[in-house]
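Researcher: We are triaging several targets before committing to wet-lab work. For this one, the compound of interest is NAP. I'm pasting the protein sequence and the ligand SMILES. What I need is the predicted three-dimensional arrangement of the protein with the ligand bound, expressed as structure tokens, so it can go straight into our comparison scripts without reformatting.
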Amino acid sequence: MFAYTRFFISFSKTYFFIVLFQQQHIVITGAASGIGKALVKELAQYHCHVLAIDKDEQGLKLLMQEMASSKTQVQILTLDLTNADQIQALVPMALEKLGRIDLFFANAGIALYGSFSSQDFKARQSQMMVNLVAPLEGLYQLLQVANGHPFSYVITASAMAKTGMPNYAMYAATKAALDRFADCFRFEHHPACHLMLVYPIATKTDFFNGQDLSKIPWPTQSPQKVAQSILKGVKQKKTSVYPSLLFRCMISLQLINQWLMYPYQVWNKPHQ
Ligand SMILES: NC(=O)c1ccc[n+]([C@@H]2O[C@H](COP(=O)([O-])OP(=O)(O)OC[C@H]3O[C@@H](n4cnc5c(N)ncnc54)[C@H](OP(=O)(O)O)[C@@H]3O)[C@@H](O)[C@H]2O)c1
């Protein structure tokens, strides 16, 4: 009886997962490598439409070849999200390709390691544009055109949105800004929009290319593990996803403090 119940629960979960992503129109930025690519691969089992966006054209073409025999229909779009005009074109071009957007993964990001004073204006600006401006602008544009159509918007933030690490000041600033944005946005009235932020710890991707590997913060996880946690979070309509349980435990006091502030935030919420 117990085994039967477990089989039924696991079958229902799998069925719900399949139904959820089936025929969905999905945008993923930073899809040519790392977590973005892992997301595309995890979605390969569903009959959905994916628009993979990245600045790495070769990486996108390779991804398309790799996905040729999958159930997912993949289209690609090369955009440089450090460029304000290309950020403005993000949602209009995605809509032109997909017709509608049900799920948007604002995942592209860059981190430049080094002291704050060693990063020139271009280095600082590029991190702000890709990590902060592009995800927020994408959400803004989608809200303008959604017209009541429900959608999920998932931003890959970082563990550094919650806790700083030496030599990542600029990067951590952009990710922490996303965290505070989401904290405020959730008190606004956007019934069609499900916003979810993801807080991965160090993940074994190209992200750390060119850096001294001994400087990668411990512990680490695989991009597949992060992608699976993200899709599970979308399914459960979570607002925050911590792919590492250990990290979540490490910041538990901070999370409790956040919950303690919740009544104060609600108290200040304007009446509709
Ligand atoms: N890996 C980690 O430890 C870690 C931890 C926490 C959070 N994250 C976040 O996870 C997200 C994905 O990172 P990842 O680890 O998967 O890194 P990744 O392997 O470097 O993938 C990021 C992708 O974004 C693309 N990209 C970079 N700049 C872009 C731009 N200007 N316009 C369009 N695309 C651009 C990159 O293209 P190129 O290859 O051409 O640069 C790359 O394909 C990022 O937001 C990152 O901040 C990563």
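Researcher: Any quick observations?
Model: The chain has a mean pLDDT of 92.
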